[in-house]
Amino acid sequence: MNCKSGDDETCKRRNATSLSYYIASLLVTLEYARIWPDGESFPSCKILLSSGATIIFICANFLLLLSEIAVLTMRCNLELFANIIGVIGMHAVGLVKWCYCIKTNGIIVDMVMTLEKCHVLCQRIDNSEDGYQIYRSQMERARQYSTYFIRGWMITCIYGILHWCANPLFITSWTEMDFTSNHTSTKRNLPYITWYPLDVDNIYNYICLYSMQVIGGLSSAIGIVCYDSLYVTILMIICAQFQYINTILTKTNFDNVSTLEKKLKNCADCHAEIIKFLKMLQSFTGPTMFVQCIETLIGICLVSFQTSAIVVINKETILILWSLFEYFICLNIQLYFFCFYATRLEHLGTQISHSVYSCGWELVNVEKKRESNFKTQSQNHSIYSLVQTIILRAQRPIVLTGGPFYALSLETFRAISTMAVSNSVFLHTVSSANE
Q1: CA distance 225 to 151
Q2: Helix axes 257-309, 78-103, angle to 10 degrees
């Protein structure tokens, strides 16, 4: 939007009233991944290029996943299983997330429209300049955090994939290395352990297979980044709206009964709409978050097991350890963000009941108790009903789940990490006993 210099402040405020202003980075990311409908800024050539790139990336990821599953079924043993199952899980989750978002992009649009309605209702709670500034500051903070998360997570995932794919250029034998000795083969290496019908001694075949694996790995990273950015950004926005409701109720002085009644009614409407939106979000993300929790549990477990299996320390094993460390950190960061914002959302949602009760509604009733006209009594009764309704609704904890078994929280994060490390110790014991 172009604005003249004299209308800068008006233009900024008009932009700030739209939810798209606060989730611009998310929408651009989803547009490039063909998840969000085409924006006005997307010319036809860019749409064609992004569509073609999306098809290529998804197909490469699918072929990579099939070749990994094939090698696992052809020669399965504990060490190979530990080396490959975590990578298969990462590629499968990335493919599922990207395809799931493309398939259900209509639901995503509906969720954003509902979130836009929550955004509008929040601004109606207190339409004064002070109320606007409080809401603007909360949403600006959420916008900045969302932008940092999207960029940081994208850089982290893409760097991790490219670094993993670069390892074969420095490691003598990635797929056939014996971690317990210095023996290695001279066969050309690929980033991932897969079955392929081509002879990699031929340089052209090797380049084709290597490129396919790099593109497939990047595809899984893009799918993970898009879905995670959508989920975390939405949680950030809802947390900002809950924080605003808490702030506006505890820090605002109500002059009369009519003002209090109006703000409580707007607060009740906004809170009800947010709860409705969270039910939509839970229905949309429940299945994929269950897969995410299982994949994280298996990934952390197997990374710990692979690390414990490395005995000899040399240049090659150091590169492997560094890649495993990066993978381990990414898995933990990913799950931590989900659990942290789910916990924060639950805390802020429960806090609304305390904020409503502390808004000073009983003082207004005391001041007006001598007035016996029907209008005042009706307003007092309405205020009492609104306070009671909001408190009862807010006392129900907001719990985001990952399928039927996992409630996303910091306690779940701790439990999954502890369980994964314990299972890796068990696997290491079984592997040592079989040798």
Answers
A1: 9
A2: 150
Contact 39, 27 (CB under 8 A): yes
pLDDT-wise least confident of 48-62, 134-148, 243-257, 395-409: 243-257
pLDDT at 258 over 80: no
Radius of gyration of the chain (CA): 27
Q: What percentage of the chain carries pLDDT values higher than 70?
A: 79
Please, which residues bridge with residue 402 across strands? 406
Residue 184 has what pLDDT?
Answer: 39
The secondary structure element, H or E, covering residue 324 is helix 315-357
Residues 270-289 have a mean pLDDT of: 91
Q: Which residue has the higher pLDDT, 278 or 314?
A: 278
CB-based burial, 271-294: b 16+ in 10 Å, e otherwise: bebbeebbeebeebbeebbbbbbb
- What's the CA gap between 282 and 167, in Å, rounded? 39
pTM of the model: 0.85
Question: What's the one-letter identity of residue 222?
Answer: I
Of 81-85, 110-114, 427-431, the range with the highest mean pLDDT is 110-114
DSSP H helices, 167-256, are 203-251
Contact 27, 20 (CB under 8 A): yes
What's the rounded Cα separation, in Å, for the pair 192 and 161?
A: 11
User: For 168, what's the count of Cα atoms within 13 Å in the CB-facing half-sphere?
Assistant: 23
Contact 150, 25 (CB under 8 A): yes
Q: What is the largest CA-CA distance in the chain?
A: 95
Q: What is d(CA 198, CA 362) in angstroms, rounded to the nearest whole number? A: 79
Measured in residues, the chain has a length of: 435
Backbone φ and ψ of 8, nearest 5°: -60, -45
Q: Which residues pair with 401 in a beta bridge?
A: 407
pLDDT of residue 317: 73
